[in-house]
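Figure 2 data, in text form.
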Amino acid sequence: MSRAADFLEALQNWYLAQCDGSWEHTWGVAIETLDNPGWPVRIDLEETGLDSTTFTRVAVDRSEHDWYQCWVEDHVFNGAGGPTNMKDILEVFLAWVDAGTTPPH
């Protein structure tokens, strides 16, 4: 299995673990595209084990198309990045899920 597939499978598993017959009717995960180009990722944390877990903002800026930022605001994990950085955003989120703290970058 590729590394990207591992990230996708881990995100799917996290999402499924939140689905309790109620959570999924109000909260969820959204991945879209930006016109600059890039990716915004929004993952609702309300009523999850991460809702009150500390997260330190992550910002990496390597070039015009190789950048990403992740932060938590209003019970939502937010990630935004360049066109090839979705895996970086998911890696930050999933490392936080696994460790309960923001990973170093």
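Caption note: Residues 3-18 form the longest helix (16 residues).
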